[in-house]
């Protein structure tokens, strides 16, 4: 099997855990070498936050680039993933909300003596968590970097999945959040646990459009995530996907990368991770969001530090144009640079070197280091 690029460097990081309050949840995290020695008021501390259904090892391919730089960094296993706690059950859903996660991340940073010079860096659900980590701890942050998922403006309006899909179908031509109907279904974890390779294929498949006007563009994510019923059919091998297996993108054919994913899912399952969808669909965060909205002068919803947004051309859900919503409302007061990479949603597996270079070039201009 071909080795996973950066795995040796990833395994050289110091792995630690912490019991966070108030729920006594274990959070697993990794520190760059000589972490405390590298800390300085003049050098930001980077906090890398993965998304669904990944863990801290998602950043493996990028780690070697950051080890060559002066920035101390932390890689976090979000709740439900890797070495962190995996609470399940309806009474535990609220433990996955943004504020709880943000506060737990800062308990990690406090334990490691990190000052008020943090830059959260998040992908997918990690992007949403990084955004709220900044909003709930503005005085501790110097910048913000988000990948795939654009800024989610705080809202106290109850989330209505059907309405959200109606609105996005009208706006984009397809229901952006259709796949939530599968992830929030009672039997979804059981179906995904039964054949985790099918979910690897859902996330990393390649299907060029047969429509001439789409010029061979990969539409697999749109088909799986934004077409009613297709994700369930593919995972369960039913209906139109009963006897069909999609071709994988080149990076996803790496057997070692596949095996690490399969071993992790077979060990941990999807029962805990789907709670990210339940916590928003069940509206567990409305009070927290209202508190942000109620702060004077939009203090709770503006981004007042330099910000970098990295989108991907092949991401049908986390569209590259959605930063415009916050920009038009004047909420990006610290300035936001947008970079678009020719890749799919799971860009840290597909193009880790390019993502690291984009981040480091921006950090170099804004905060010193690589330029």
UniProtKB/TrEMBL annotation:
Keyword Hydrolase: yes
Domain AB hydrolase-1: 44-169
Top-level taxonomic group: Eukaryota
An annotated Gene Ontology molecular function: hydrolase activity
InterPro entries linked: AB_hydrolase_1, AB_hydrolase_fold, Epox_hydrolase-like
Listed SUPFAM superfamilies: alpha/beta-Hydrolases
Signal sequence segment: none
Keyword Hydrolase belongs to the record: yes
Keywords, ordered alphabetically: Hydrolase
Family: Belongs to the AB hydrolase superfamily. Epoxide hydrolase family.
Protein name, as recorded: AB hydrolase-1 domain-containing protein
UniProt organism field: Cryoendolithus antarcticus
Lineage, opening ranks: Eukaryota, Fungi, Dikarya, Ascomycota, Pezizomycotina
């Amino acid at each position: 099997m071909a080795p996973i690029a950066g795995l040796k460097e990833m395994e050289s990081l110091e792995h630690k855990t912490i019991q966070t309050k108030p729920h006594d949840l274990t959070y697993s995290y990794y520190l760059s070498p000589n972490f405390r020695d590298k800390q300085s008021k003049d050098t930001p501390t980077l906090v890398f936050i993965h998304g669904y259904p990944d863990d801290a090892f998602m950043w493996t391919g990028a780690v070697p680039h950051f080890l060559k730089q002066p920035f101390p960094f932390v890689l976090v296993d979000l709740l439900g993933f890797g070495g962190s706690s995996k609470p399940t059950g309806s009474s535990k859903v609220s433990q996955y909300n943004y504020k709880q996660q943000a506060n737990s991340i800062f308990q990690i940073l406090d334990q490691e003596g990190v000052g008020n010079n943090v830059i959260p860096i998040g992908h997918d659900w990690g992007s949403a968590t990084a955004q709220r980590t900044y909003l709930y701890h503005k005085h501790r942050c110097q910048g913000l970097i988000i990948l795939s998922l654009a800024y989610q403006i705080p809202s106290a309006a109850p989330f209505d999945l059907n309405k959200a899909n109606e609105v996005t179908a009208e706006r984009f031509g397809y229901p952006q959040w259709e796949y939530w109907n599968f992830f929030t279904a009672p039997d979804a974890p059981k179906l995904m646990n039964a054949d985790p390779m099918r979910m690897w294929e859902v996330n990393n498949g390649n299907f060029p459009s047969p429509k001439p006007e789409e010029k061979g563009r990969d539409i697999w994510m749109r088909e799986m995530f934004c077409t009613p019923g297709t994700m369930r059919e593919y995972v369960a091998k039913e209906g139109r996907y009963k006897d069909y297996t999609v071709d994988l993108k080149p990076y996803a054919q790496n057997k070692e990368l596949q095996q690490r994913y399969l071993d992790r899912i077979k060990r941990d399952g999807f029962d805990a991770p789907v709670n990210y969808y339940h916590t928003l669909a069940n509206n567990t965060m409305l009070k927290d969001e209202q508190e942000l909205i109620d702060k004077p002068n939009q203090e709770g919803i503006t981004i007042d530090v330099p910000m970098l947004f990295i989108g991907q051309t092949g991401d049908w859900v986390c569209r590259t144009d959605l930063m415009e919503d916050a920009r038009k409302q004047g909420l990006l007061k610290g300035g936001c640079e947008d970079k678009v990479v020719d890749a799919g949603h799971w860009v840290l597996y597909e193009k880790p070197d390019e993502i690291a270079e984009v981040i480091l070039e921006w950090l170099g201009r804004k905060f010193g280091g690589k330029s």
